[in-house]
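Dear Dr. K.,

Following up on our conversation at the group meeting, I've run the structure prediction for NAD-dependent succinate-semialdehyde dehydrogenase from Neolewinella lacunae. I'm pasting the input sequence below exactly as I used it, so you can double-check it against your construct before we proceed with anything downstream. Let me know if the numbering doesn't match what you have in your notebook.
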Amino acid sequence: MQLKENRLLKNLAYLNGEWTAAREGSTFRVCNPYDGSLLAEVADLGEEETCRTIELARQAQVQWAGKSAGHRSRILRRWHDLILEHTDDLALILTSEQGKPLAEAVGEIRYGASFVEWYAEEAKRAYGDVIPAHGSDKRITILKQPVGVVAAITPWNFPVAMVTRKVAPALAVGCSVILKPADATPLSALALAVLAHEAGFPPGVFNVITTTWAKEVGKLFCTSPLVRKLSFTGSTAVGKELMRQCATTVKKLSLELGGNAPFIVFDDADLPAAVQGAIESKYRNGGQTCVCANRIYVQAGIYERFVAEFAAATQELKLGDGRLAETDLGPLINKAALEKVEQLVDDACAKGARALTGGHSSTLGGYFYAPTVLTDVNHTMDIHQAEIFGPVAPIFRFETEADAIRAANDTRAGLAAYFYGRDYARIWRVAEALEFGMVGINTGMISTAVAPFGGIKESGFGREGSFYGLDDYLEVKYLCWGGIEPTPAG
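The predicted structure tokens came back this morning:
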């Protein structure tokens, strides 16, 4: 990996402002999913180091919360500027450990930085309230105060943006953070820690624990009374287990869990725009995003035309090394991810689906799967309910608006949904009827720092981004002032 600044490539955890090896020298391998080449041997920390970090983070948090909002804002702003200054190196690290095309990695770095910029500004806007009192001798004021130590667990598919989206609002309001990045992609988080250190965050305010002991470390986060907030992005099954464990300390919790996004195309849609939107939504990051189009529903009147144009566009996508400019799709993250996609497609084809393109592992070998379009798909197939997390697009036919809404909502997930159409009365009806936390209307790209990201139903709760994103890191305190004598007459 040829970086301009080699200091960004770290293999030690970042605890209390210091680069720290595991107590017994344990490490784990981080490899490039494109070719399996070794990128780094990273410190593999355990429960002892985690407990010590929690205690130090609590001590640091008290001091950090005492700083002015303007002080915290200025440090966040410096972090943002440093991230953008090192975009190229951060993108190369990201692509090398995660596999996504370099252009997408650059986009993620900028997207991730936008959260730091946003919350550098919002740090100064965590306003309280004055409420008209219930008695003439009373006054009521409302304070918003940092919740305390925050534990954040982030996934491998967006190893920069998922970090900044959680860490920036927490730091902005005066919380300290202990981050556990995915063990497949810790190098991006560690590079962010290098820049956070240079930006001037005090020791213990931002910590990165690298570990393969996810269950043990996660349980410590959940059960420690010193950790007052857990933010997790990952699978629904793991999220439910963390929620059960957090009940022991009744801590604040944010969960961004699995999705099963419908992508609906009505017969009055702008067809070229719908095809392009579906390509962007489905195949971004090789289909490995929680808001990817997972089920494509197309109205009968334009079904054949959409399928033909979408399949043709899919066939143009080029698989390859994410570090090469011509690559559109990189590899899947690991063997298990590849096997899951293979099983879902095999099950669908065994039950009558047809693969217009792809339908098999790529001839490139490794963790590559050919971009796939499936037709004649029905609700008996596993792919209807599973979160695919791969470059496979199952396309369903529907007749009426009611049919589309019913099919789209037939899932326990409720993260993102998309639809294309021009009838504004129908647009309102459908937008209101879809049981999802986020809805893209005539667009397949909805993520932005200025809007609240999050789901409903079994996709979790809590919001990240926008001014709503501060709320999950704040406690509301009510102050009742009594004994206030009325102003003397005259």
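Two things stood out to me. The longest strand covers residues 139-146. The chain has two domains: 6-258+454-477, 261-410+416-441.

Best regards,
J.T.
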